[in-house]
Structure formats: structure tokens, C-alpha cells
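Researcher: Next entry in the queue.
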Amino acid sequence: MFQVRIHGRGGQGAVAAAELLSVAAFLEDRHAQAFPSFGSERTGAPVMAFCRIDDRPIRVREPVMRPDALVIQDATLLDQVNVFDGLRPDGAVLINSPGRIEELGLADLAASVPHAVALTVPATVLAVRHFGRPVPNAVLLGGLAALTECVRIDSLTTAIEERFPGKLGAANAAAAREAFAHVRAEREEYVRAEAD
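Model: Structure for this entry, 196 residues:
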């Protein structure tokens, strides 16, 4: 089973992201579940959403405590919430940031989870460029698809266009594809650096 935990702030679309990821998995004839966890339900408050994907029916219903992948929609959460709690030793981390991972001061992550792959993607920048709104959720999913191969990019963009028909869906899908290409290039660079 592949488990994802999404950390964001109210209004950034963390819940919609988990739902889109589950729909993309359904489109691939897999089983999936998506659900949120709210503390305070106001805009800007920290929120979490979860998604599980498997080839078999999923019976577990509790929050994802040992994620295979983390999506951090807002880098300011890095100093406010223990977003890395429970990350599997070989997990994947995708952070919405225009800077590189080294610029975020995550030396503790490298020490505590030495085999994790952590990359960034400028999801908010891409969202604003493609559809004029700072909502990074679908964009980050494109990056997650490249980083983990949890779903195919075509399945994801189909799910996005079904959820947001018309120009908004097409723009979100285009932004997700650009994030996919960005993260795929970053991942290839990371693999080369690890091999040296």
C-alpha cells in the first residue's frame, strides 16, 4: 500500500489534492481512499489530508501515521508543524518552494531520514502563471507523480480535468504537467548526485 500525507493550510486545497490523487488511482483500476484531518477549520490554519493507494481493497481507516510520501503545500509549515513525523526511512518529500531543498534548512531531515528523497517544486509560481491563483494542490500532485510514480501523469490530468471542467481544468492540468517535468528533472539530478 502506498500512503501519502499532505500538509497545507486551509484554502490551499489539501483535501481536494487527496481526492484528486485517489480519483487518478481509480482511473488506473486501483483502490484508493482520501480523507482530511482538520484542527481549526479556518483559512490559513494547518490542515492535513491523506490518501492511500493499493491494488487490493483498503480496510484501514485511520490517519496515515507512516507515510511513504509527504507533500508540503506551504514551506512555512516546516517551522510550525512536525511534518516529517513518521516518514518511512526511504520515503519521498515534495515541498512547495521556489528554492532548492538545501535553502530550506533541512539538515535535520537528512540526519533523521537518511534515505529519504526530498525535492522542491515552485508550485505556487506555476499555479499563478497557468491559472492566476496561488492554489498549489493540483500542481504539487504532478510533482508527486514524477517523484514517486504513485499514479501516471495522464491519469492525474484526467482526474483534474474531470474535477475542474473547462479552462480551469486545462490550466491546472498544464501546470501539473510542468511540475511533473520539473520534478522528473530534479529527481534525475538527485540520482546522478547520489551515484557519484
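Model: The helical segments are 14-27, 107-112, 123-131, 137-148, 153-163, 167-195.
Researcher: Noted, moving on.
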